[in-house]
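Need residues for this backbone.
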């Protein structure tokens, strides 16, 4: 009785054999992805339905504004202003720390520094808010006064500087909060630069900085940009830290960073007013949350798109 054996060619024609565990894991992963998409769509639908009545709100229903646009615009401006300032402060420091950890510091120091940076992400937002309101704000007030006295001709420092609890202080707190995110992602993509590229640049006579500029930065550009976008998303949605630093925001549009008249952010305004809101005011706050939801979604989608585009080119 003869037996028929299947060679490699027959297995290739029949296709790869899938194990039961792989099939189960693939199904669970796909189900989790679909569940996340359904939850995201549910959140968006809820915000849209609950925020729709606010479109016609005005007067006291819109917190003293003639339309919902006049209510949301100062909050949107404050949200974007605080997030952009936080990025300007955090990104250079984050990239510098990531380079020190991945290419300059000895292994023992780099590991310790990496642990310290990662621990910043574990600190609750409330702790950052308390530190910003009661430690940073009083300590930085003399600097604000100096800026108002000597650089008051600039619109950013017109003053008067009477309190340290300003939009600039809130931005500094946000910068510290997004520092671990941008640093961790940048550190990982810097470390993934092909070693042969770095050694080739050094062999051609490049200094360490020239090697980093010619090999590390081009290779990790998409990853760094995606990390920055994720940090921006965190800064846009931060609530408690900004609410505790600013306490009460004013519906103004100004670039004066050291004045007590500060634009609040959408998230902080919702946290401060939602407990006392009723009727159409709740719909107005939910509508502002919808605006923040769309902006955060767009920022994170843009960051993912840049990362995917860089992987395809690579």
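Answer:
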């Amino acid at each position: 009785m003869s037996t028929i054996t299947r060679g490699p060619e027959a297995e290739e024609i029949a296709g790869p054999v899938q194990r039961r565990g792989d099939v189960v894991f693939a199904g669970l992963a796909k189900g989790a992805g679909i569940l996340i998409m359904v939850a995201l769509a549910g959140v968006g639908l809820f915000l849209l339905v609950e925020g729709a009545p606010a479109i016609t709100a005005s007067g006291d229903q819109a917190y003293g504004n003639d339309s919902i646009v006049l209510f949301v615009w100062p909050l949107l401006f404050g949200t974007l202003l605080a997030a952009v300032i936080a990025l300007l402060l955090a990104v250079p420091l984050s990239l510098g720390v990531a380079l020190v950890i991945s290419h300059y510091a000895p292994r023992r120091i780099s590991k310790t520094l990496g642990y310290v940076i990662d621990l910043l992400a574990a600190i609750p937002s409330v702790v950052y808010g308390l530190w910003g309101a009661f430690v940073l704000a009083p300590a930085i007030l003399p600097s604000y006064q100096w800026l108002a006295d000597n650089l008051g001709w600039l619109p950013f420092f017109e003053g008067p500087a009477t309190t340290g609890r300003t939009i600039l202080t809130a931005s500094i707190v946000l910068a510290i909060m997004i520092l671990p995110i941008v640093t961790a992602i940048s550190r990982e993509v810097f470390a993934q630069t092909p070693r042969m590229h770095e050694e080739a640049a050094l062999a051609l006579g490049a200094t360490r900085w020239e090697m980093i500029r010619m090999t590390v930065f081009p290779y990790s550009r998409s990853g760094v940009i995606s990390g920055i976008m994720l940090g921006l998303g965190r800064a846009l949605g931060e609530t408690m830290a900004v609410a505790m630093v600013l306490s009460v925001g004013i519906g103004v549009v100004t670039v004066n960073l050291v004045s007590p008249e500060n634009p609040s952010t959408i998230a902080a305004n919702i946290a401060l007013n939602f407990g006392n809101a009723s009727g159409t005011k709740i719909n107005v706050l939910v509508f502002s949350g919808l605006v923040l939801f769309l902006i955060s979604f767009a920022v994170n989608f843009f960051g993912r798109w840049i990362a995917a585009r860089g992987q395809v080119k690579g």
